[in-house]
Write a structure and sequence with these properties.
It contains twelve helices and 19 strands. The protein is α/β, with parallel strands linked by helices. Strands 3-4-5-6-7-8-9 form a seven-stranded parallel beta sheet. It has a six-stranded antiparallel beta barrel with strand order 11-14-17-16-15-18. The longest helix has 14 residues, at 17-30. The termini are close together. Bound molecules: pyridoxal-5'-phosphate. Pyridoxal-5'-phosphate binds at residues 39, 86, 167, 207-208, 223-227.
Length: 371
């Protein structure tokens, strides 16, 4: 199977499902009293929605995805655990689907509360109410949240457990105290929330970086995403890096080698020019595969155990690397674009983006091989 896929395409990602499991265990160990809901939206951050869900299903209490079609795909693949939909339901049909499929729904607006209140649903749904504590993207004010909780009192198709949650805007920035302000806002508002008898309130604040760094944010539910995939969590060095294993390795293969003279350039727009006689290897990968178009000259690539530099612009299907100093590079050699040796966040930085963007941007023509 693995051989077959590699033969089909010499550019591929290798996904280590055991690494994802062990990263999930690390997330749990950081907050032993919380339940950790595995965030597997956007095709499990590019690692394969169903494959990742199947490998984690025995360990997790629930999964989170962004949109309903992702949740449906999981149910169709036989995943039985509860699935939280972070964008909730947008229509009556979606609400009914949620009822039939045991989806949990986020509600972040008056519109969504009204939709749930006025659409009769076959099985009770669990609602997660989003409080806006400062991100100002989706989420309700405290007043709207209080009114909403009142308005659904006694509604037979809404479960008695109500989760109040919020999302941080800067938890990955080590020197930024915005998360403390958000927690202060959240906790001071949360203690004033009143609910009817028999209703249970639970809370959720922490994403990956908060799980690792902000113990105060740990409540009944945590929501680890990027850490499951073993990425750097912070804008500075942090010891958590040693506890996490990158789950995705992105490989491509040398399909051309040439010698060029001083003064000759490589790639569209002639954005890199040789300052010495140079040996250039060309790899069968480009921005159409998800290698970042804006990766600059000098972005690291690993070949035959050596770090070398990207030279010239990234094309749709090709990139070039300077292998002048390596005597043994030949057609067919495999290069690591990111993975265990080259951190995706290092490549991301060279392309002025973040690892989330690179992982989720791997395109459909790149086979995923599971190990
Ligand atoms: C509401 C919500 N919770 C949790 C997460 C997971 O965040 P992270 O990947 O930083 O752990 C996300 C991701 O964007 C999110 O939108």
């Amino acid at each position: 199977m693995i051989q077959e896929l590699i033969i089909k395409r010499n550019t591929y990602t290798e996904i280590d499902l055991n690494a994802i499991k062990s990263n999930y265990q690390f997330a749990c160990s950081c907050a032993p009293n919380a339940k950790s809901i595995a965030v597997i939206k956007a095709n499990a951050y590019g690692h394969g929605l169903v494959e990742v869900a199947k490998s984690l299903e025995d360990d997790v209490p629930a999964f989170a995805v962004a949109i309903m079609s992702e949740a449906i795909e999981l149910r169709e693949a036989g995943i039985a655990k509860p699935i939280l939909i972070l964008q909730g339901a947008q229509t009556e049909d979606e609400l009914r689907l949620a009822g039939r499929n045991n989806f949990w729904l986020c509600v972040y607006s008056e519109h969504q509360v009204e939709l749930v209140r006025t659409t009769s649903i076959s099985n009770p749904v669990t609602l997660w109410f989003k409080l806006d504590s400062g991100l100002h993207r989706l989420g309700m004010s405290f007043d709207l949240l209080s009114q909403s909780l009142k308005s659904i009192e006694g509604c037979p198709w809404i479960n008695e457990t109500r989760v109040i949650y919020t999302h941080f805007s800067c938890s990955d920035e080590m020197k930024n105290d915005e998360s403390d302000l958000q927690m202060e806002e959240f906790y001071s508002q949360a203690k004033n929330i009143e609910v009817e008898e028999g209703t249970k309130l639970e809370y959720s604040l922490a994403n990956s970086s908060a799980i690792v760094r902000l113990e105060n944010s740990h409540k009944q539910w945590n929501r680890p995403g990027i850490m499951l995939y073993g990425m750097n969590l912070f804008d500075e060095n942090h010891s958590s890096k040693q506890k996490l294993t990158p789950a995705m390795s992105f490989y491509s293969t040398v399909i051309g080698i040439r010698e060029i003279a001083i003064g000759e350039s490589v790639g569209y727009g002639k954005k890199w020019t040789a300052e010495r006689p140079s040996k250039i290897a060309t790899l069968s990968v480009g921005y159409a595969d998800g290698y970042p178009r804006h990766a600059k000259n000098g972005t690291p690539v690993l070949i035959n155990g050596h770090r070398v530099k990207l030279v010239g612009r990234v094309s749709m299907d090709l990139i070039s690397i300077d292998v002048t100093e390596l005597s043994n590079v030949k057609i067919g050699d495999r290069a690591e674009l990111w993975g265990r040796n080259i951190d995706a966040s290092e490549v991301a930085e060279c392309a002025e983006t973040i690892s989330y963007d690179l992982l989720t941007g791997i395109s459909q023509r790149v086979p995923r091989v599971y190990i």
